[in-house]
Design brief:
Blueprint: E1 2-4, E2 7-9, E3 12-18, H1 24-35, E4 40-42, E5 51-58, H2 65-68, E6 73-81, H3 106-114, E7 118-122, E8 131-132, E9 135-136, H4 137-142, E10 152-163, E11 168-175, H5 181-192, E12 196-206, E13 209-210, E14 230-232, E15 242-244, H6 247-254, E16 259-260, E17 284-288, E18 294-300, E19 307-313
Parallel strand pairs: 5-12, 15-17
Antiparallel strand pairs: 1-2, 3-5, 3-14, 4-5, 6-11, 6-12, 7-10, 8-9, 10-11, 12-13, 16-19, 17-18, 18-19
Length: 322
């Protein structure tokens, strides 16, 4: 529970259906004003043109940011064939004087789109927040400087397209965190030889959070935290193995002491996916009590089976959630 000017605000996740126009930071600012709470973050930026699921972390939930920002994302939207733009979307300037007049048919479009599935290296758009030497790429671009961002590995789990007319096509994509859909559409246009840019984009899912549970930020009030759009801190689902402790061991963890957990928990050992490259660290797990409430993030002691040492401890759930 975090106290704001208007009273206590519960820690947790608020799922917002972002409208077209504002930046993700604008939405965070709106939520701060509406809830009287300064400590709010988000788990993944949406461009101003994009709409859909924006996951806000309220109060103490911001401590879970490292575990929340790697969620798989699902998008749907439209692309337009015929020309590329400098921003890779419809807000930018065309990269050619005349649109391409020879466009691929639906069959070739689908075949080429399928070649982008799997793990691949993707370069960020010139107009993006990705930094080079500490400066966002969009600042370089606005100054007329051609600076290329480093290509990073992303994974496209699925990418399907369906023509709507001669130029427009609809798409559905399921991708890893950090994937630029603008770059995906741009690169498809380059592969086709006719150019393409993003016409519209809607995020329909981010990890376990879906568009069906999202609410608009306009009209947000503290009472909105009683809706299906809000997930209390201790009910947040983390993509980590889960172990359970009894009340006595829970008390030890609350005090920062190691604790024994119940045996037979799958996935509670092995190298940590979040470990630095080349290092082997015990896997991070989420420790919950017998009520399913989040107690701590911990790592198994490599020398003592069944003993887990806390890395981050969380306060007990408010009585209303017990």
């Amino acid at each position: 529970m975090t106290r704001g000017p208007a009273g206590p605000v519960p820690d947790g996740i608020l799922v917002i259906d972002k409208a077209e126009g504002p930046t993700s930071h604008d939405v965070v600012q709106q939520a701060r004003r509406a809830l009287g709470l300064r400590r709010i973050g988000h788990t993944g930026t949406l461009d101003p043109m994009a709409t859909g699921v924006l996951v806000l972390m309220l109060g103490g939930a911001t401590r879970l940011a490292p575990q929340m920002t790697g969620h798989v994302k699902v998008y749907q939207g439209q692309g337009r064939l015929g020309w590329a733009t400098d921003t890779y979307d419809r807000t930018g300037k065309p990269a050619v004087a005349e649109p391409c007049r020879t466009l691929p048919d639906g069959g070739r479009l689908a075949v080429e789109a399928a070649t982008f599935t799997g793990k691949l290296l993707q370069s960020p758009p010139a107009y993006s927040a990705r930094k080079v030497d500490g400066v966002p790429l969009y600042r370089h671009a606005r100054q007329g400087k051609k600076v290329e961002g480093k290509a990073v590995e992303v994974e496209i789990m699925s990418f399907t397209v369906e023509p709507e007319d001669h130029e427009l096509f609809r798409f559905h994509a399921r991708v890893s965190a950090g994937t630029y859909i603008r770059s995906l559409i741009h690169d498809l246009g380059q592969r086709l030889g006719c150019g393409a840019h993003l016409e519209s984009l809607r995020r329909v899912q981010a990890g376990p959070f879906t568009l069906e549970q999202a609410m608009p930020v306009r009209g947000l009030t503290p009472d909105s935290l009683n809706s299906d759009s809000f997930v209390p801190f201790h009910r947040i689902e983390l993509d980590l193995p889960t172990v359970e402790v009894d009340p006595d061991e829970e008390a030890n963890l609350r005090q920062g002491q190691p604790a024994r957990v119940r045996e037979g928990v799958a996935g509670a050992s092995g190298p940590n996916d979040h470990a630095a490259a080349g290092q082997q660290e015990p896997a991070l797990v989420q420790v919950r009590n017998n009520k399913g409430q989040l107690v701590a993030l911990a790592c198994q002691d490599p020398a003592i089976p069944g003993l887990f040492r806390p890395r981050r401890v969380f306060p007990p759930a408010p009585e209303a959630l017990t």
